[in-house]
Amino acid sequence: MTPSPDLSLVTDEADEQSHFDELIAAEQRIEPRDWMPAAYRRTLIRQISQHGHSEIIGMQPEGNWITRAPSLKRKAILMAKVQDEAGHGLYLYSAAQTLGITRDEMTQQLIDGTAKYSSIFNYPTPTWVDMGAIGWLVDGAAIANQVPLCRASYGPYGRAMVRICKEESFHQRQGFEILLTIMRGTDAQREMAQDAVDRWYWPSLMMFGPPDDQSPNSAQSMAWKIKRFSNDDLRQRFIGMVVPQAEILGVTLPDPELHYDADAGRWNTSEIDWTEFHEILAGRGPMNAVRLQNRRAAHEDGAWVRDAAAEYTRKHAARTAEVA
Ligand SMILES: [Fe+2]
Ligand SMILES: [Fe+2]
Fold first, then answer.
1. Closest ligand (CA of 168)
2. Where is the signal peptide (predicted)?
3. C or N terminus of the chain, fewer CB within 10 Å?
4. CB-based contacts of 132, cutoff 8 Å, min separation 6
5. How far apart are CA 203 and CA 2, in angstroms?
6. How far, in Å, CA of 189 to CA of 181, rounded?
């Protein structure tokens, strides 16, 4: 005799799925306690944790310049910016935790090298002007990517992005202002600025991910309204934003093919070097090993703080129990 299937479970799951689909179609938010498809949860955990890791690893290229910033004012601004990035990491880890992954698991994935983070943070920052180019181009690309995420269908993610985007726009302006100041300096300073723009322009275009026809998960993320625009559309928006800003700065974007095709309504560009992008994502970028090694060392150095906090909680709970 074959056991009859439990039809009540099947119906419940179908009901849940159609309720979820209705919420998505109506631009409503999915909240942590709502039913959601397992693949939606998995996708969000992967995306939000990778995003959090990018913020945390992203503190390193600029943290590198805090002690050498050219004035007290520049130092204070840069320090505030790097602290903001730590905050972004924390909001994002908290948002990911609402989906059932722990902070320890995420940290472990990052330090054992199994988690991915944005390829952009594996480039070196050899000069002070890199702080300007990163703020202008890297934080600028982050804004273009992240503003649509404020409307992501998963509530905790979208809400975290609202505050993050406000802070990112401060970052972008401080970077632009560093470059503007340098461009008003000597010929040697202008050359340094141009060199930094040459090094950061292409990697910042790669931040939007592979071209649409090579981005297999994009369609599903757009159907779930996590993602609102395709990689190529976001890249186009970013180029449209930086071209007039480059003119104001007086720097040249390092792409001789770059021009606006008015008929197609799009920017034409040279081919992006996707081999470089994939090499870095695979862990073979110029700074991958250093970034992870620093993160691991920071985690180990912080063990006593975590132990002390756990011990405090234990003692506090024991004392409360005694009083009760
Ligand atoms: Fe950030
Ligand atoms: Fe930022």
1. 2
2. none
3. N
4. 175, 176, 177, 178, 179, 182, 193, 196
5. 59
6. 10
Question: Hey, which residues does 261 pair with through a beta bridge?
Answer: 266
The SS3 call for residue 24 is: helix
| 3-state DSSP assignment of residue 33 | coil
Picking from 97, 121, 249, 87, the residue whose alpha carbon sits closest to that of residue 176 is 249
pLDDT value at 254 more than 80? yes
Q: SS3 letters for 41-55?
A: HHHHHHHHHHHHHHH
Find the 168 Cα to ligand 1 centroid distance in Å. Answer: 6
Span from the CA of 164 to the centroid of ligand 1 (angstroms): 6
**For 46, which DSSP code?**
H
Q: Is the pLDDT of residue 190 over 70?
A: yes
Which ligand is the nearest neighbour of the Cα of 173? 2
Q: Domain span at residue 207?
A: 15-323
| DSSP-assigned letter for residue 154 | B
Q: State the distance from the centre of ligand 2 to the C-alpha of 191, rounded, in angstroms.
A: 25
2 within domain boundaries: no
What does the alpha-carbon distance between residue 95 and residue 307 come to, in Å, rounded to a whole number?
Answer: 24
Statement: residue 7 has pLDDT above 60: no
**pLDDT at residue number 6:** 57
User: 256 has which bridge partners?
Assistant: none
The answer to whether position 8 is within a domain reads: no
Structural domains of the chain, count? 1
Instruction: Find how far residue 75's CA is from the centre of its chain.
Output: 23
Q: Which ligand is nearest to the CA of 160?
A: 1
Rg of the chain, C-alpha, whole Å: 23
Q: How far is the CA of 45 from the centre of ligand 2 (A)?
A: 21
Residue 49 included in any domain: yes
| pTM given for the model | 0.92
In a domain, 9, yes or no: no
Q: What is the CATH number of the domain that holds 237?
A: 1.20.1260.10
What is the distance between the alpha carbons of residues 232 and 208, in angstroms, rounded to a whole number?
7
